[in-house]
Each structure stands twice: as C-alpha cells, then as structure tokens.
Amino acid sequence: MQDSIGIFDSGLGGLTVLKSLARHFPQESFCYVGDIARLPYGNKSPETIRKYGDQVLDFLHRQQVKALVIACNSASTMYLGEKDFKGIPLLNVIEPGCRAALEAASDDKIAVLGTSATIRSGAYARILKQLRPQVEVLEQACPLFVPLVEEGMLNDEVTQTIARRYLTHICQQRFKTVILGCTHYPLLRQDLLQVLEPGTQLVESGDVLARELQQLFASGQLPAAHGPSRSLKVQITDLTDHFERLALQLMSPESIGVLEKIVL
Amino acid sequence: MQDSIGIFDSGLGGLTVLKSLARHFPQESFCYVGDIARLPYGNKSPETIRKYGDQVLDFLHRQQVKALVIACNSASTMYLGEKDFKGIPLLNVIEPGCRAALEAASDDKIAVLGTSATIRSGAYARILKQLRPQVEVLEQACPLFVPLVEEGMLNDEVTQTIARRYLTHICQQRFKTVILGCTHYPLLRQDLLQVLEPGTQLVESGDVLARELQQLFASGQLPAAHGPSRSLKVQITDLTDHFERLALQLMSPESIGVLEKIVL
User: What is the per-residue pLDDT across B68-90, written as a single tens digit (0 to 9) for each?
Assistant: First the structure.
C-alpha cells in the first residue's frame, strides 16, 4: 500500500472522513485503521490515547503509506503541531478544523462539540485563540452522541432531547458556527439542525481534511497517485456483527475493497 | 494479597459487586481489577473478550488471590461452566444469576437485560432453560444503559424514556422477574422501577455472588480470612478524572484502601 494515504480512527466514525476524502480524490488509494477493540478513545487518559495512537500510526507506517491522517479528534489532541510521524506527513483534524471555522464564521463566536477527552484537552479553544485572539469559544462535551450514533438512533426524538440539553448554551448565546469535533457527529447532522438556530453552520472534518490534503498535493509535498485504479482498504482491530452493520451504514459495501481484522 | 478475593470487571460498574461483597463479608479482603483502558467489553467479539479476560485473570492469579469473581457479564459469558482458573476457584455471574432468578420468580417467566455482547451470547436463555426447561425467557439488549450510567444520568427523564423503549415487551408481556445482567444496571434501579410494572423483582449480581461465595466458605472449598483487618484494593488499567469521579460515586472514598493504575 506504498501509494496509499493512511487514515486512523478509534472506530468506524472516521469512515465519514474516508468517504469524504475518497470522493474528493478519486485517484487516490486509502488505507483505514479503526481501533475498534479499544474504542472509545474519548474517555481515556492522555497517556493511554498517545500510546494507542502511536501503535496505530506505527502499523500504518510499516505499510509504507505516503501520508497519515488522524481522523479521530481525541487522538488528534495528542499530536498538535506535529507535522510528521517518522518522516511521513501527518495531518490532525484539530488545527485545520479551527482554520476552516474561522473562515466560515461571520462573527467571532465559535462553538465546539466533542467527546469528553477532546473538550477536556482544551485544544480547540487554545488554537482558535492563537489564530484569532478576540474569538469567543464555547466548548461542549457531548459524551452520549457516540453511543447514540452507534445504536443507529439517527433522526430520533431521544437523540434530539439529549442534543437539546447539550446545545442549550450554544442556542441561548447565539453561536452560529459549530465545529463537529468528532467523526461520528456528521451522522447526527439532521438531529443537530433540528435543535440549533436556523442558519447555523456546521464544520465537518471530512471537508476540512480534504482541503489540507489538496494543499499538500498542490505544493508538491505529497505526490499524486499514478496507478491505474485506486483501492480502499479498511482494517479494524476487532470484528463484530455490530461494526459490520455500522460500516455498511457509513460506507456503501461495494466501495470498501478489503475489510480485515488486524492485531496491534 | 494472598488472602484476597479477586474481582474482575471491564470497568467500574463491578464496584457495585465489590460493595455488596464487602458488606456481606466484612472480614474478607478484596482485590478489584477494572479494565478501564479497554472498556466497554459489551460490544467486542468473543475472541477479544476472552483474550482480555484471560489477561486480567492472569494478573489476579499472579497476585495469588484465593478466589476469582468475574463481575462483568460480558466476560462471564466466555467462562461458563469453568469452575477454576489455573487451579483457583472461579465464579462467573451468569449461572448463579439464573439460579437466583428461578428461585425468586413466582411464575415461569424471566426477563434478562444486558449489553449487546451478553444478550447476543444467548447465555442466560440457554442456562435458564437447562435449569427449568419450561421457562419462558425474554432477553433484551440495552446498549445505552452503560453510557447513561457513566454520564451520571440517574433518576433522569431521558434515561427513563430510553428505558421505556427497551422495556416495552417486558411490560406488555408481564414479565415480573428481571435479571439485571450488567454490573452498571443496579444504579438504574430507580429509573427501571419507574418504568416496570409495580411488584417487578430485580435480580442483582452483587447479592447473587454473595450467596455463591457463602456456599464456598460453608463447604470449606474457600478458607475464611484470618487477618486482623481487611483491605480493599482497586486496580484499573487507565486513570482519568471521569473514572475517579465515578469510583467515588460508586464507593465511598474512605472505603477504598488503594486505587492504582496497572498495565496489562
């Protein structure tokens, strides 16, 4: 998989990123690792997240991918400012997300939704304020969103009731730009739009990472693929019916070339 | 910890079991391992659950505990019928739970609530029918209950709305004996009783395991503690603020003697 782009997530949520990148770059091959055996990362300690993250990146490194994308926001908080991993270009999802949100916003107010680990890290607020010191940031942990997505409770009244609780301050304080700081959250798009003020903009990781990769290609830092056809490979650290169903929900079955279990 | 009883859970839910056993056996010392770094077990494959389970049991075995209690229901499904682990008496939570439910029931109808892995295993239904072939069993997976407990959403309207969904058939078909097939569920007792028919009996793992241990003591298979004072040791594979809070919610802080992080 020497010409592939590696994508790493704690689970299958990052398939939303794979899907977006595969659409933006139809020539490129991708190699996705989901660390399902040990998910969720969102409630682990920084030391444990970094340890597991390094194991996954090492695994992708040994497969000689040409770039590494950390789709998982909780893992990304451990790699801020790191431009490469053992010499391979490394992208995390936080810094590009901040830049995209600031460009999209019509005011100086950005809200961030994420897992407990992502919000506790304070990474989004810190980087947003580095980029634009006067920005007002509201960070909100939404720990039930991942289990709700994994139970398929989309367009669901219960999900919207829980969303209403999490989003109270965002609505009351009229934040109109919201970073979806977790790969699972794009699947809740409809539920969130039901609850948020009309006209609220949602910033999603897939689009943001596509822009970053585009810049790497344009600047010549990353060579474009030259093979006759591309491949999409999904490797996960555990294999259950549940996750197979979820994978099919997230990606159309014919688009995944290889789905295999690996041991880290 | 040569005179201790080892308790194993995927997380901290099993502290409900530790609390119950510590109350029943005030002389005994306990050594608890919560595999927090890799929880939840409830959505992993059988192979992965067994692999992680063996690692934890091995760890407790090396600490020379005198008995091993698997408090985690998902892990218990992997050790059915196994009476010892490397020569040390081994208790799982499923078989004793089935016996206790059949004794408690005034009819031949038993409902079981559990994680996806526990329910998918079909272990409860299989054992209940072995013990009483005419019993009618209704098994219901409740995958959102663990995250709801871990977010502290107890005595909460949202939790009750979700419970109402999960318990629809149990209420409609008038099941009056319900096994709480997950260590977290006793914390939802009040929420469940709000939703279930009045007079429904809940069978909890802590009580059930206390009875089993009592029998091992009474039969002489397990020597009683003889030290001057007992100790309670909690060892977890990851340490986060979140789980410290949860631990304190589940056990009073002064009752935990040692809380330490271990690597498996």
Answer: 999 999 999 999 999 999 999 99
Q: Is B42 helix (H, G, I), strand (E, B) or coil?
A: coil
User: Which among A36, A48, A146, A152 is positioned nearest to B43, based on CA atoms?
Assistant: A36
Of B171, B178, B170, the C-alpha closest to B105 is: B178
Strands A84-85 and A67-70: unpaired
Closest-CA distance of chain B to residue A225, Å: 36
Query: Would you list which residues of chain B are within 8 Å, Cβ to Cβ, of chain A?
Result: 36-38, 43-45, 48, 116, 120, 143-144, 147-148, 150-151, 158, 161-162, 165, 238-243
Residue type, B59: F
Q: Considering only the beta carbons, identify the residue of A36, A44, A241 that sits closest to B240.
A: A44
Averaged pLDDT of chain B: 93
Give the best residue of B238, B241, B246 to mutate against chain A (max A CB count within 10 A): B238
**Separation in Å, CA B202 to CA A253, B44, B151, B245:** 42, 26, 23, 26
Phi, psi of B42 (to 5 degrees): -60, -15
Evaluate if pTM is beyond 0.95: no
Q: How many CA atoms lie within 13 A of A179 on its CB side?
A: 35
Q: Which two tokens stand for residue B69?
A: 């209690």
Q: Which of A12, A45, A50, A159 to mutate to test the interface with B (most CBs of B within 10 A)?
A: A45
Angle of CA points A109, A115, A116, to nearest 5°: 100
Sheet strands (E) in A16-146: 29-34, 67-70, 84-85, 88-91, 109-114, 136-141
The tens digit of pLDDT for each residue in A49-108 reads 999 999 999 999 999 999 999 999 999 999 999 999 999 999 999 999 999 999 999 999
Are the Cβ atoms of B120 and A38 closer than 8 angstroms? no
| Interchain proximity A147–B144, CB inside 8 Å | yes
Which chain B residue is nearest to residue A151, measuring alpha carbons? B143
Residue B182 falls in the annotated catalytic set? yes
Is B142 marked active-site? no
SS3 content of chain A, % helix, strand, coil (to 5): 45, 20, 35
In b/e form, how buried is each residue of B194-211, taking b as 16+ CB within 10 angstroms? ebbeeebebbbbbbbbbe
- Collapse the DSSP code of B72 into the 3-class scheme (helix H, G, I; strand E, B; otherwise coil) and give the result: coil
